[in-house]
Amino acid sequence: MNTFTILLLSLLTTICSAQIQPLIGTYLGDEQRNYYGNSAPSKLNLKWKTHLGTGYTIVSGKKKTWSGAGWTGQPLVISENGELFLIQPTLSHHLRKIRAKDGKIIWSCNLGDVIKATPTFVTTSNKNPEHKFLIISGSRRGAKANFYTDPAYSLHAISYLTGKKIWQHQSSRTFSNSRDVDASGIMIGSKFCIPTENGNLLYLNPDPAKATLNPTTNIPEPFIHKQYPLFEQIDTQTHSHELSCESSPTVYKGVAYTAAGAGRIYGHTSRFFGTKWNFNVGGDLNSTMPLTNDNHLLLGIEKEFIQGQGGLMKIKPRSNGKVLWYHPLPNHKWYEWAGGLVGSPAVNHRTAKGSNISENLACFVGVDATLTLINHKKLTPNKRAWGPNQKKHYPCPLVLDTVKLPEGSISTPLFIGNKIIIGYDNGLDLYQVTPAPEHKLKLLDRLKGPMFDATPTVWNNRIYAASKNGYLYCLGN
Fold first, then answer.
1. The dihedral of CA 433, 350, 135, 4: what is its sign?
2. Dist CA 459 CA 375 (whole Å)
3. What is the pLDDT of residues 402-458, one digit of tens each?
4. Dist. CA 98–CA 83, nearest whole Å
């Protein structure tokens, strides 16, 4: 062992002895997908911005150049000995560690293709400081990888401390038309659970000590405990090859609930390695489901593959598909979408205390550019609507207010206290929910111009929002 290695290990050990804590550790906070930060500002003044770069990828055989960050693209917030750092995925192929106070880039790791996925912070039991704290991130399959013949290394573990790649997982070819990873995984016990766009749900061991070297590629690959298909054979008749899963699993009582691209919600557990639940909703499900304060799931539904309208549905898990209500959204052609919800809904109960508003609120944005505020525990009297497949009528939730945004959005709103932050195609808005009983949406500030597909992050009255114009913005009072 040379002197440099000894000094590096000594430095890493010193850092490890400090407190390293994920504050926003995965997409939408944690395994419940309903925590968006501790406090939000009242203004969108620019504090700093950092250039994230540009990269290319292959879409339908054609080269595309993208900048900044896109859907889902949410930065993580990590406290390291009291100082805040961001882990930002980018479309420039690089995962970046960024100092939150001034936007300084600490390290960058090239993952080989654009990174749409929000990463997840994981702590292992490994005694090597470099391998103890990992960032696990998906990416597209590899900008130079042939879809049909090459390995698709689209899931990566990176050392949080050094920014070095530790292991990679290759997504095999299946009947699905994708080998990317857009979802954000989560730890369940000692196992890391993540859907991949080839239509599988993986349970793997993230510890680098359990990884093995692939003799053909010479790349360390993680140990896979189990994998499940997230589609049924019959789904290939309705969805053909459109079977990729882009949403992130929500964990409730040890069960991972995943909204799959084949239109089904699956419930899996790592304890007994079995399928606990399979609810056929229909459609192409992209939305990640937050857990409400009455332990239900809110599911966004896109228009594709369904007879009726897309919208938002409240579902009881561990049931025979019990639907409490459905809120349809108007059919609306926007880019490749025809209506419904692509981003995820947001709930407010984790931070509503002391904000003079109900803890039973939720908000969401359709591709028709309408921001809707509801009470998810109350119904609109004497109102019912057709479900997404037009086979059953459902009650409708109580709508409190709606606002038309300047442009459509696939981004996910953040709901913190009585504040809502939402990005869209040519800007970002900050709203305040007025006190009970009115509960109306009041615009506090607006940033015009940049495209915000990616979900922002909020901490200590600062908003960190990455745009497809190439920059990460820090905004606040």
1. positive
2. 25
3. 999 999 999 999 999 999 999 999 999 999 999 989 999 999 999 999 999 999 999
4. 11
Task: Write the CATH number for 12.
Answer: 2.130.10.10
Q: Can you tell me the distance from the alpha carbon of 200 to that of 274, in angstroms, rounded to the nearest whole number? A: 14
Per-residue model confidence as pLDDT tens digits over 188-219: 999 999 999 999 999 999 999 999 999 999 99
Q: Quote the DSSP letter at residue 416.
A: E
For 340, which DSSP code?
A: B
Q: In which region does residue 164 sit, left (phi positive, over 0), alpha (psi from -120 to 50) or beta (all else)?
A: beta
Tokens representing residue 280 in the block: 């056929």
Amino acid symbol at 292: T
Closest CA to 32 of 269, 278, 292, 260: 292
**Lookup: tokens for 124:** 């292992």
Contact call for residues 407 and 451 (beta carbons, < 8 A)? no
Which residues face 135 on adjacent strands? 121, 158
* pLDDT at 11 (0 to 100): 59
List 221's β-bridge partners, or say none.
212
Predicted structure pTM score = 0.95
Q: Contact 89/69 with Cβ under 8 angstroms?
A: yes
Strands (DSSP E) contained in 52-143 are: 54-59, 62-67, 76-80, 83-89, 94-99, 105-110, 120-123, 133-138
Residue of 393, 174, 176 lying closest to 284 (CA atoms): 176
Domain count, the chain: 1
Query: 221: which 2 tokens?
Result: 């690959």
> What b-and-e string marks burial along 343-382, b requiring 16 or more CB atoms within 10 Å of the CB?
bbbbbbbbbbeebebbebbbbbbbbbbbbbbbbbbebbee
Residues 81-111: tens digit of each pLDDT: 999 999 999 999 999 999 999 999 999 999 9
Q: Which run of H or of E encompasses 14? A: helix 3-17
Secondary structure (3-state) at 57: strand
Q: Which stretches does DSSP call E strand in 272-369?
A: 274-280, 297-301, 311-315, 323-328, 331-334, 337-339, 346-347, 361-365
Q: Are 364 and 353 in contact (CB under 8 A)?
A: no
Range of the domain at 239: 3-476
**Rounded Cα gap, residues 296 and 4, in angstroms:** 53
| Measured distance CA(232)–CA(266) in Å, rounded | 11
